[in-house]
Amino acid sequence: MHGKQNEKYEKPTLTKHYRGFMNKFARAGSSIPHDTISGVPVRGLVEQFGSPLWVVSEADLREKYKDLYRAFSARYPKVAVAYSYKTNYLSGICALLHQEGAWAEVVSGFEYDIAVKLGVPGDQIVFNGPYKTRAELERAIKQKSKINIDSFQEIDDLERLAKELGEVVKVGIRVNMQLRKVDWSRFGFNLESGQAIDACKRVASSDNLRLSGLHVHMGTFILNTKTYRALAEKLLGLYMAIKDTLKVEIEYLDVGGGYASTNTLHYHWIPGEYACPAIDEYAEAICSPLVTELRKIADMPLLIIEPGRALVDEGMYLITTVVSLKALLNNYKGVVIDAGVNLLPTCFWYRFNIRAAERPASLSDGDMTNFVNIYGPLCMNIDCIQLGTHLPSVTAGDILVISNVGAYNFSQSMQFIRPRPAVVMITEDGVEYLRLPETTEYICQLERVPGHLLKKFNSVQKGR
Ligand SMILES: Cc1ncc(COP(=O)(O)O)c(C=O)c1O
Is ligand 1 within 6 A of the CB of residue 406? Predict the structure, then answer.
């Protein structure tokens, strides 16, 4: 779980004024019922599939992908969207995005396996990450995937492997740059210190490696699009240096992911839907410097982007049911729901939009919402979904909908105290399972109890 990582965000100081501003926004929409998802009644979904329930909207995801691809391909002639698998590697979600034309961006053999299982061609798999095993690299070489190298050790390992296989392997170099306050220099080679050009020279001098790509991924949830313009400009500088001094034609420039969703971070001044730049603003910031400089070149490099959050956060919901109400000592009300932080790890980052599915019977027009704490069902004090949020007067059995939960929740969720619920997708033709609810048998199937422990247990029982 993310825990303290949100400290790393470039957080503004929250003044009383902004707190009031936030609360006003939060209250504004909090009493509007969230009664359907993609046209399907929420109560019907709970009756059919139970609660809690993850719900994916096929239409929303398709629209997101199309819009993102349009924004970039309208501004740059050769674009590949490599979906960042770690964001949410449910096979149904990945399959949908591949159907739309997405490549796969993977950071482990496990994620690579999923892409292969879904039929993604090897040369449409971008293989990133600080640790790739020999077997993983061997498969990626054979499949002609785009391997972006993270360290000098990896250059040595890959060179040795390529030699053993008798191959000349095309590779990319991951570059980090000083663009933000957050330090990401642990990934790849630093530009400003000269490490990146040294790595490029090292690859260019190898008989078994061929330098073919440059990769940067500078972080996540980046709201300032000027940072992407700076990234593109610095990357162009390196591209030109390589072209002029090493006489190498780079085939792809991969600018990574990091594009925000409309969720609200805990330290945001204003709600995410107002703070999040349009995807066209990101595309413009990246493509405009690239096109200005590269259009003079006959064979422009392919532009790869690796979105995660911006593609899938908004197409997924978590439906949950109120199980009890609590009167807290600080005069707040507590609302206990059946979905915990084990299903929603990004609640440590996000202030989610949580609304009742139906207008509670006790609420008439103009009624005020209540300021409540929302807790999960786990017998752990950490299980707080949201502290100090607005909800109408709900009671046990009322259904709530938490929006924009598609990124980094399912893939980081775990069975903890309770098994994980089902995931369904709303399609044009109805509602289909993407994943069945977990059972005790499923969770325990990899466990083994050594025979002597079982025997002892039985004899103790018998002796009683
Ligand atoms: C290399 C790489 N590319 C892309 C992404 C996707 O980032 P985001 O979900 O912020 O778009 C990540 C996530 O951290 C990443 O590590």
Answer: no
